[in-house]
Amino acid sequence: MRKYVLKRLAQVMVILFCILTILFVLFRLAPGDPVTRMVDPEMTPEESQHLIEQLGLDKPIWTQYLIYLKNCSTGQFGYSIHYGEPVAKVIWEKLPNTILLFTTAVLLSAMVGISWGKIAAWRKGKATDLVLTIAALVTHTLFLPWLALLLVWIFAYQLDWFPITGMVSDEVWLDPTAGFFTKAADVLYHMVLPLTTLFLIHFGSYLLVMRSSMLDTLKEDYIVLARAKGLKERDIRNKHAAPNAWLPVVTSVGLSLAFSINGGALTETVFSWPGIGRELVFAVSQNDYPLAQACFMLISTVVLMSNVVVDVLYAYLDPRIRY
Amino acid sequence: MALLTVENLGIGYQTAKGLLKAVDGVNFTLEPGHSLGLVGESGCGKTTIGMALMGLLPPNGRITEGRIILDGLEISAMSEDELRKVRWNKVSMIFQAAMNALNPVKRISAQMAEAIQVHRPEVDDHQAMERVEGLFNLVGLPLERLYDFPHQYSGGMKQRAIIAMALALNPKLVIADEPTTALDVIVQDQILKETKELQRQFNIGIIFISHDISIVADVCHQIGVMYAGQLVESGPAEEVFFNSQHPYTQALVRSFPTLAGPKTKLAPIPGEPPNLTGTIPGCRFCDRCPKDTASCKLDHPQWRQVGPGHHVLCDHC
Known about the structure:
- Chain A is an all-alpha fold.
- In chain A, 76% of the residues lie in helices and 0% in strands.
- Chain A has two domains: 2-73, no CATH class; 87-317, MetI-like fold (Orthogonal Bundle), CATH 1.10.3720.
- The longest helix of chain A has 39 residues, at 180-218.
- The longest helix of chain B is centred in the middle third of the chain and has 18 residues, at 185-202.
């Protein structure tokens, strides 16, 4: 087990190195360069030269690459060209917002999807199954921005139940008397629509995976044995069938959780949610190399690491898997 | 009083082509501590009977006629809740280990303790584990393998664990459905011997379901030979095996090799069993029978006694 984890971590390091290199090359190949954005045409040549030197853009590309590698390995991602602040600071400001929205959405849709999938499989062919399966298929195939806009139009614009955009109301957060719970409630209130959108889009895939996995499990002989032992149907479903059925679902939840830190550019844009997804798109369009590179680095690391975590977790859930 | 009485049992499966009568007019009784072997080829209805005895017919299957009475309780008339209390408590089942009968993600000991605690809620975890240890000793499984998962066991060990599990609540009747089919002959022989010994020790009634008449003859007191949903010959094991009367039984005996005795050519039974969805006017074995006459196809054959306790469903034997 230990050996396996160490081996996997070594693999992660190699892959990260490859990703770093690809990122570096890709950003240099992309059209446009930061100098033209940063350098004001009214600056004197000396001023612009100074700026370019300050950004390290005058050095040969190999030197830039080596500096970049050294900085990445020591955790120094430099300064955002656009904000002029440390990249880490920019990311840490946005990341919690994304995690709050997207990780909650993944957990919620996974929990609901898995338990509904279990029920659908258990009542296969009955009305419950039909309604759940059709609902899952329909919502899962909806186009996210369309659904998001529809919800905003109905519930925020027409009915005026929820705020149209943003994550907080200024009047609440600027009010010195507002306590923690008032502020939290305000954020929750803003979260309702984006969370609903993400939930509707995502619960279906978990439901369908869990349902089909559960149907396979229910055909197994140990289910007949459990019934022969005189177990209650509920215990057969929850203690014997489900623990076997959710093995394939774990992978999909684990990876979704990992990807949830990159947020969703579409969702964050529609709801003006100040998260990483929007920041990433912005950084790329502004040729803000350090910021974009750091964002991609962060996402790659989390995805790679959660692959390892999912594999290790698998060994705990399924005793047949040993490394 | 007989431990088990099966009266005129009929079981049908609802299929797309109509009701398939998997079991038709089956009668037998089993005394406490005795064993009955049900033999026949695949699809003859022997497993269906086993499942019906546990009240575990699949959703499209139902008892169409007759009664099953176990230890004074009419199994065939019980609700699901009542059945659940009888299962494993009075009648348990030995599954075939090669089939995925043990839950792969649960420890063997936990699966056994569960069977005990479901029916005896007053038994705490500690007492349940003591009982499980006792069962391990009983079937000759090493105690250090108590907390293993099923995949860590060999086929023979799994089969022992399944036997131990079946004995957990001292049931009066155990249904053994092809318990040793997937094992190699040496392990098979050991397990059969041990099963026989356990049966004697605890005075358990056993219904032994197998396609191998020689095994059944070795293990059981009584044999019931099944063909196309009906019993066709029944009687004391030795009688039925060595003095078979029904042409199907004779063919079954000839179709298995013997270790002792002269080398003879194995005789396969030509043809296939009839389709069970319609009604069959005459004898069901008729199409494959070497002795068939014109009248066989017209009338249902009648049960006849051919020896002490030895009966056969054939008009020409």
